[in-house]
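Input (structure):
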């Protein structure tokens, strides 16, 4: 069953976690680690949390329309979380769009696309895994 309210509530939890994690990484952790290490921290720490939210989403949207529900989350979560991250950087540090798009450059070692990929894949994989158990 498709439940947009569940999808939105879990996305809100993810977005709050990602923004707070970025804040902690930019303030406390940035004082002790290199820039690259902080970027890896900001990308890797939310991944288990995203996986947990995807499992909760799959459990709440179990049924005949599990694929549509997981596809809704897979399309909504990465784009809106990237938007929340951009707005955080814009409002807190007055960074422009070019600084945000530099974070997306995976080919030179930026880890942020890994988080975006997990946000896209996790709901579908969790939904498929729970649907296969039925």
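Output (sequence):
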């Amino acid at each position: 069953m498709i439940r947009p309210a569940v999808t939105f509530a879990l996305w809100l939890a993810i977005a709050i976690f990602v923004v707070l994690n970025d804040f902690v990484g930019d303030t406390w952790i940035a004082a002790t680690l290199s820039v690259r290490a902080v970027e890896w921290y900001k990308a890797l720490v939310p991944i288990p949390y995203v996986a947990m939210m995807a499992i909760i989403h799959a459990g709440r949207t179990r049924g005949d329309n599990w694929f549509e529900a997981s596809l809704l989350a897979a399309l909504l979560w990465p784009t809106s979380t990237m938007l929340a991250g951009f707005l955080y950087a814009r409002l807190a540090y007055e960074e422009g769009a070019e600084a945000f798009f530099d974070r997306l450059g995976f080919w030179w070692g930026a880890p942020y696309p890994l988080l975006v990929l997990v946000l896209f894949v996790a709901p579908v994989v969790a939904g498929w895994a729970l649907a296969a158990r039925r």
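Notes: The CA atoms of residues 13 and 53 lie 8 Å apart. The chain has six helices and no strands.
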